[in-house]
Design goal:
The structure is a single chain. The relative contact order is 0.08. By secondary structure, the chain is mainly alpha-helical. The chain has a 3-stranded antiparallel β-sheet with strand order 1-2-3, with helices on one face. The protein is globular. The chain is 66% helix and 3% strand. InterPro entries: Surf1/Surf4, Surf4.
């Protein structure tokens, strides 16, 4: 019997039809070439193989049919065919839709990119968190050292701006120097990390008010992005504290940690909003479109590791190109401005590396997909 008569039916119905035509002893329909269906056999040149198992004598139930080879219209079935049979099958099949072919190509490209990101994580998983923490505290380390070498200039600036007197201005500079350098040492040594993060949060708030950053939208958004990196560092320290009893079953990660990771991701993307340029040049248009798409992916937690890794590469390239402070003489004010921007951008890169290393957390689309 030809195969085409059974292609539109379900597998169970085909089995019933074959058994009904082949007798009550379970031998089934004689196949092409006379082979019985009692063992593995083929129809139409090896496309289908079935096995019939029944009881001796009259059947009390239908036999069980097992599909041993994939159907001819699937890609796996074509690969299993000989060259001649595959050529005949492809000639009968309708041509693929262009939109479907394009979607398959995009899925293959996305899968390749995700495989590359996973391979990168496997190779660097022992070093990536340390590099992320070093990048994250780099702006605090640079600013603390600058407070030491520019003590008099910083003190005079605070005294002139706020008219607070020599003593209060000196206290402000000393508090910034001690707080930032101490926090950096604690973070790098991984001791009292939570207290160090709270202290660095206080330094950010103090500088935002003292240097009138609150009224400068660009600097305010960058400071908020820096706070997002500290939130991710705080979430990492909480996970380390909860993993001290290895092998003990635990509940799902606590809500505070989940929302700290969410807040950290959302605040980190504010850094990229300061890089958007609203002009008609081709480079700016491409940069705005790609950057906005990646920011949204990181914020909602979809394809998070791949998007964050792409942002790390892109932001590092922009940082080295636009904030090359080493090309400016030290005595020029632009040197300090570019240096400040460079290390603050490196801190945001450190936060993104923490996202790559630790994942997006529970409040994300990547995590919800596991439950679907």
């Amino acid at each position: 019997m030809a195969l085409k008569g059974y292609m539109g039916r379900g597998l169970e119905q085909r089995g019933r039809d074959i058994c009904a035509k082949g007798g009550r002893r379970g031998r089934g329909l004689p196949l092409k070439g006379g082979a019985p269906t009692g063992g593995p056999s083929s129809v139409a040149g090896g496309v289908w193989s079935v096995r019939a198992r029944g009881r001796r004598g009259p059947f009390k139930a239908w036999p069980t049919w097992q599909l041993l080879e994939p159907p001819r219209h699937s890609e796996a079935g074509r690969r299993a065919l000989p060259v001649e049979a595959a050529a005949g099958a492809s000639a009968e099949d309708p041509p693929a839709e262009p939109a479907a072919a394009a979607a398959m190509g995009q899925n293959d490209l996305m899968g390749t990119a995700e495989d590359f990101a996973d391979q990168f994580l496997r190779v660097t998983k022992q070093y990536l968190p340390h590099v992320a923490r070093l990048c994250l505290i780099s702006t605090f380390l640079e600013d603390g050292i600058r407070m030491w070498f520019q003590w008099s200039e910083q003190r005079d600036y605070i005294d002139t701006t706020w008219s607070c007197g020599y003593l209060l201005a000196s206290s402000f500079v000393f508090l910034n120097l001690l707080g930032q350098l101490t926090g950096c040492v604690l973070v790098l040594s991984r001791n009292f990390v939570q207290y160090a993060c709270f202290g660095l949060f206080g330094i950010i708030a103090l500088q935002t008010i003292a240097y009138s950053i609150l009224w400068d939208l660009k600097f305010l958004m960058r400071n908020l992005a820096l706070g997002g990196g500290l939130l991710l560092l705080l979430a990492e320290s909480r996970s380390e504290g909860k993993s001290m009893f290895a092998g003990v079953p635990t509940m799902r990660e606590s809500s505070p940690k989940q929302y700290m990771q969410l807040g950290g991701r959302v605040l980190l993307v504010l850094m990229f909003m300061t890089l958007l340029h609203f002009d008609a040049s081709f480079f700016s248009i491409v940069q705005n479109i790609v950057g906005t798409a990646l920011m949204i992916l990181v914020a909602i937690g979809f394809k998070t590791k791949l998007a964050a890794l792409t942002l790390v590469v892109w932001l590092f390239a922009i940082n080295v190109y636009f904030n090359a402070f080493w090309t400016i003489p030290v005595y020029k004010p632009m040197h300090d401005f570019l240096k400040y921007d460079f290390f603050q951008t490196m801190s945001v890169i450190g936060g993104l590396l923490l996202v790559v290393a630790l994942g997006p957390g529970g409040v994300s689309m990547d995590e919800k997909k596991k439950e679907w």
